[in-house]
Amino acid sequence: MNIEITVRLWQDRETNEFVAHALPIDVSSFGATPDEAERMLSEAVQAFVESADAMGTLDDVMSDCGYVRLGQNRVKPQVSEEELSVAVGA
Q: Domain spans of the chain?
């Protein structure tokens, strides 16, 4: 089975580690380098999917995240990302 994800990657200012975040399933991981963070994210996504499958909830979880089943694969919904400035305070 293949699952498409969109990955956001950034460097944490406090730890200097790289954070990889999988959208739209909302799974994240980290590593010392961007490659390591993405590799760790792949492992985290795999564990997430295997756990949901073992509990019998994989189809519901993926559907709730907007995925469409295409044979054995899951096709992600279109994810858009925008910069937004939010005024806070008085």
A: 6-75
- Give the pLDDT confidence of 34-77 residue by residue, as tens digits: 999 999 999 999 999 999 999 999 999 999 999 998 888 888 88
As beta bridge partners, residue 8 has 21
Strand pairing report for 27-31 and 68-70:
unpaired
Encoded tokens for 85? 């400035």
pTM: 0.81
Q: Specify the length of the chain in residues.
A: 90
SS (H, E, C) 39-59: HHHHHHHHHHHHHHHHCCCHH
Measuring CA to CA, which residue among 54, 89, 43, 53 is closest to residue 74? 53
Is 55 in contact with 75 (CB distance < 8 Å)? no
